[in-house]
Amino acid sequence: MRYKGNILKPFAIICSLVIFCLILLPSVLIGFFHEERQQELIPKAGAIAVPEYIKVYRHLSGNTESIPFEEYVMGVVAGEMPSDFEIEALKAQAVAARTYSLSKIIRSGDSGNPNHPSAPVCDDVHCQVYRSPAELREIKSAEWMSSGWPRIKSAVDTTKGQLMYYQGELVEQPLFHSSSGGKTENSEDVFVSALPYLRSVDSIFEAAAPHHNEQSEISLSEFKNKIKRSYPDLDTKSVNSNSIKVLERSAGGRVAAMQAGNLTIKGREIRDIFGLRSANFSVSVNGNNVLFTTDGYGHGVGMSQWGANGMAQAGYKYIDILAHYYTGVEVY
């Protein structure tokens, strides 16, 4: 019996250690990090309360509507992100949309927006796409209202009132786009201002994004004509296989400058001229045709929506997603 007991005692100790490592320790760690995460969301001094209502200019009717603020955020999330995205991605979108909306209210003051003076925001891509529940029912279906809408409502409700701040100040430009192609952009490489929270970061969880290596081919003559319409100084005789090439790329990999004959043109202007999904492109001349190959969809600044969904699928929470795409921000 003594010999059997000597065997079982070490065995019992090993089993206890295995149970502790596999079950008890993860529970302790989860509880610790959950408590730490909750601490991050306690309102801090200087936190801004969202208003009860927001005025929204509706393009189709030409009217300005006063909409409950959080209901408006739901309509923006529904208009800007697929409802079947992961719930943590939807939460990240909700906080970004809420922050953007409030910043527009603060910046507009009593004068509204120059493009719609009666309201600080409108319902299309000029500001953020907003769709009312009635519009969503018509656009998406009654079935979607019982499946997709509850997920969006949950994402907005569970982040109610939460905003992004940078060094204690409300973030003014929480920009987002569909997919980056692997790396986002510094704001000054696409727009005018260099904002500290809009820095180029890797976006590695975009494998499921639909716009990878998309090709668009046009004839060389059409290429010349389209550029000529935007740039009358183009010498069309100078445009050939040797004078169509990328000259410079940005920190995020998008085309900063491209040569077309005797001209040097910004990549985002080439994107606009030819209707490309992204300025993250390569260009080549094949005989009498010009071939563009693009990666990603959108301007590439701020949060990649497909990247956010990929991060959520990998286990990241919405605050992690926002902190990744918006450098140095806090959420409270």
pLDDT averaged residue by residue? 89
Q: Report the portion of residues in β strands.
A: 15-25%
Separation, N- and C-terminal Cα atoms: 63 Å
Query: What's the helix-strand series?
Result: HEEHHEHHEEEEHEEEHEEEHHE
The major sheet is characterized as: 3 strands, mixed
Key terms:
332 residues; 14 strands; alpha+beta; three-stranded mixed β-sheet; single chain; three-stranded antiparallel β-sheet; disordered N terminus
Describe this structure in words.
The protein is 40% helix and 18% strand. Helix 4 crosses helix 5 (142-158). The longest helix has 39 residues, at 2-40. The protein folds into two domains: 53-177 and 300-331, no CATH class; 214-294, no CATH class. It starts with a helix and ends with a strand. It is built from nine helices and 14 strands. Mean pLDDT is 89; it is low at 1-15 and 18-40. It has helices at residues 2-40, 69-80, 87-108, 133-140, 142-158, 220-230, 267-274, 305-313, 318-325, and strands at residues 53-58, 63-68, 121-122, 164-166, 169-170, 176-177, 214-219, 244-249, 255-260, 263-266, 281-286, 289-294, 303-304, 329-331. By secondary structure, the protein is α+β, with helices and mostly antiparallel strands.
